[in-house]
Design a protein that fits this description.
The protein is α/β, with parallel strands linked by helices. Helix content is 24%, strand content 24%.
Length: 283
């Protein structure tokens, strides 16, 4: 197998979004009232060259994000909490072509969740089987999904993903998982918290595991610290997930790859694993 990091533009958010405090609407309000911004953070998608077929994990953002009206101004998060930059050539379709692949040849697209910076490139994959956790799909669709910060109005009209429910099949410290490949070397694990149906993808290599973490945390350092993001509506669930991820990195060598970590691409290239000595005491 080969795994590629594909950067589909950048995003800046309020710094408190990286690690927040409070519960429910209070947590989100504190994030949006923060006056400081992060620098531009990458928006990574991932390509796995697998003997059973090409696998894409997340589709990145769309270049249309800069068009007036694409992001709903009535929503406080899109009005106050995010700045995104994507060039047309950075979208996942052209990016795959630059690597010598066609989006039409991708067998599976696995969505960690359906926020716009992960689902903005769905239109490139009309021929692929797109896998979405049923809980996430139900949370993201319709008017209620739009209120929660999803953008179902921009899903392609043909979008009809394969919805799945998790087996009660433990995978290391994760109680729920589902295998993707027959070789059992690519597995989807439930990492609920950032969104209600958030998942991550684990790719097993000979010496270590690649953990494609989505927005489980925004960086490896924040995961090690046990930080919980500032926009989740379920911080206790997110904390349980972070604790499981940290335990997973203690059990085996893990290359931890969140979507927005500026160092994720280099860690993938060098296969730099989380150092056990990096862990701090349990909070």
């Amino acid at each position: 197998m080969k795994v590629h990091a594909i950067r589909t533009g950048t995003v800046s958010v309020r710094r408190r979004q990286l690690s927040g405090t409070g519960r429910g609407q209070t947590r989100a309000a504190r994030t949006l009232m923060d006056r400081s911004w992060t620098g531009p953070l990458p928006i990574y998608a991932w390509l796995i060259e697998h003997p059973e077929g090409l696998i894409v994990v997340d589709t990145g953002e769309s270049a249309r994000v800069s068009e007036p009206g694409y992001l709903p101004r009535w929503h406080p998060y899109f009005r106050l909490g995010v700045r995104t930059s994507v060039e047309p050539a950075e979208e996942i379709g052209p990016s795959l072509a630059q690597l010598g692949f066609s989006a039409a040849d991708v067998r599976w697209v696995v969505m960690t969740h359906l926020h716009g910076d992960h689902a903005g490139g769905l239109a490139h994959f009309p021929r692929s089987e797109i896998l979405v956790c049923r809980v996430e799909y139900d949370e993201a669709r319709g008017l209620a999904g739009r209120v929660r910060g999803f953008l179902p109005q921009h899903w392609p009209p043909w979008f009809s993903p394969r919805l799945y429910d998790f087996d009660e099949r433990p995978y290391g410290p994760f109680p729920r998982s589902i295998p993707l490949t027959q070789a059992d070397d690519v597995t989807i694990v439930a990492t609920y918290g950032h969104t209600k149906g958030h998942v991550s993808v684990v790719v097993e290599e000979n010496a270590h595991s690649l953990f494609l973490a989505g927005d489980t945390s925004y960086s490896e350092g924040l995961m090690v610290e046990g930080a919980i993001d500032g926009i989740t509506s379920a911080p206790s669930t997110a904390r349980e997930t972070i604790d499981r991820v940290r335990e997973f990195t203690r059990q085996r060598p893990v290359v931890y790859l969140p979507t927005h970590d500026p160092e994720a691409g280099e860690r993938l290239r060098s296969r730099k694993t989380v150092l056990p000595t990096a862990h701090v005491a349990e909070l």
